[in-house]
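[step 3/7] inverse_fold.run input=structure_tokens len=238
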């Protein structure tokens, strides 16, 4: 079973520290919050595996569970380019799977899902980069660019992920990472008369996105340090 990483802070003083300072933190493997599928290493040094909720094919993650509905689309403005006579515009433009925008989002999401779910780190280095990527968004999720133009010189563009029935949309790939993790775990809800998604994203949990993003980066950093300590090479896929 693959392992995630946690930081174990030393307590008291370090016996090997002549200055008597606090013990240096160490990194040790611990089971992830969800027992992942048994990934198999492929001949091209990537990983594959599958279960009822998601699959991995050569580091490409497919989420088979969804909380989205086809009718959950942007509203209030046209879903195609419309420019007024004065040059102003306010419309949504769908970002297809092949677009640079979609790939950028899916790389970030896949990168941190690999850390959270499988204890793996993306490697962008060398001639054969071994990145983790979300192969496609879950069923009925669609990515849109909201374009607002006051005139030909002033424009604002926001990229938004629509589809979920739990919240309005996700305004960055980092906002969606923990919601995607929740989907991969089978969409658990809290017990009781008013069940709520047991999801760690900012909208379901009420936590600040800045805190969530920092925790994700810290987890990735600790995993890289553990991997380097284990193999001597931070880019090695152990």
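[step 3/7] decode complete -> sequence:
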């Amino acid at each position: 079973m693959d392992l995630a990483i946690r930081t174990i802070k030393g307590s008291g003083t370090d016996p090997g520290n002549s200055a008597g300072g606090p013990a240096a933190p160490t990194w040790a493997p611990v089971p992830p919050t969800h027992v992942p599928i048994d990934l198999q290493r492929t001949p091209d040094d990537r990983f594959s595996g599958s279960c009822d909720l998601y699959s991995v094919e050569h580091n490409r993650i497919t989420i088979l569970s969804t909380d989205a509905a086809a009718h959950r689309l942007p509203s209030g403005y046209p879903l195609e380019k419309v420019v007024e006579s004065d040059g102003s515009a306010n419309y949504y433009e769908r970002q297809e799977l092949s677009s640079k925008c979609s790939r950028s989002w899916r790389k970030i999401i896949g990168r941190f899902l690999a850390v959270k779910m499988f204890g793996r780190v993306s490697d962008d280095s060398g001639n054969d980069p071994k990145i983790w990527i979300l192969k496609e968004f879950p069923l009925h999720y669609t990515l849109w660019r909201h374009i607002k133009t006051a005139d030909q010189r002033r424009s604002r563009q926001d990229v938004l992920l629509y589809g979920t029935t739990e919240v309005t949309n996700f305004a960055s790939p980092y906002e969606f990472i923990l919601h995607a993790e929740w989907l991969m775990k089978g969409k658990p809800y809290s017990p009781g008369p008013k069940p709520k998604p047991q999801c760690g994203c900012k909208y379901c949990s009420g936590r600040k996105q800045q805190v969530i993003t920092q925790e994700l980066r810290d987890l990735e950093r600790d995993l890289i340090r553990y991997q380097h300590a284990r193999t001597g090479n931070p880019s090695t896929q152990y």
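[step 4/7] annotate
The longest helix spans residues 209-231.
The helical segments are 100-118, 173-184, 202-205, 209-231.
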